[in-house]
């Protein structure tokens, strides 16, 4: 038996997984068993489509935050003149999330069971609030980037100088409500994620 086989046998009780997974127990137990038996990953559509939102929903906060920042960084380089390369990078990373998502989650679930989280009456392995807030935060970041690109239409306007800085600041003054709402949502999801992490 491989090392993964031994580790799975130690936590093979179905009750443990029901408490540690909460949602989609059948799917994840089968995926975990395949990892033990073949050491091959299985595809996770939720991780592919939702990325960091799925990680936050499953309370993998550190990994979720890192992936969120990576995706946010990629979005910053997307423009009307150069969408193809960043888009391919973005999709490539999403393929990685989809392929390795179950393996990451398996390691997290084993660690939580080892620490006895599944024995706590009030323990919840998922957080709908964290997942939604992360998804909304990403949408706000994307919308903000699209708005910025529409304001700066020529390549010369992308250069950082006094004129472009003034244009950006003036646009923020013209739409103070939108700017404040975007900042509030972004900071809110970070705050909620931090609270959930501390509670975990």
Walk me through this protein's architecture:
The chain is 76% helix and 0% strand. It contains ten helices and no strands. The protein has helices at 3-10, 14-21, 25-38, 45-50, 52-57, 61-76, 84-115, 128-151, 162-174, 176-199. It is mainly α. The protein has one domain (3-199).
SS-based structural class? mainly alpha
Distance between the termini: 32 Å
Give the assembly state of these chains.
single chain
Helical residue percent band: over 70%
How many distinct helices?
Answer: 10
SSE order, one letter for each helix or strand: HHHHHHHHHH
- Overall, the morphology is elongated
Q: Outline the low-pLDDT stretches.
A: none
User: Whole-number average pLDDT?
Assistant: 69
Number of strands: 0
Number of folding domains? 1
In what range is the share of β-strand residues?
under 5%
Cα-based radius of gyration, to the nearest Å:
21 Å
Largest sheet entry:
none
Features:
10 helices, 76% helix, elongated
Task: Give the arrangement of secondary structure elements.
Blueprint: H1 3-10, H2 14-21, H3 25-38, H4 45-50, H5 52-57, H6 61-76, H7 84-115, H8 128-151, H9 162-174, H10 176-199
Helix pairs in contact: 1-3, 6-8, 8-10
Could you provide a short overview of the structure?
This protein is 76% helix and 0% strand. It is an all-alpha fold and 200 residues long.
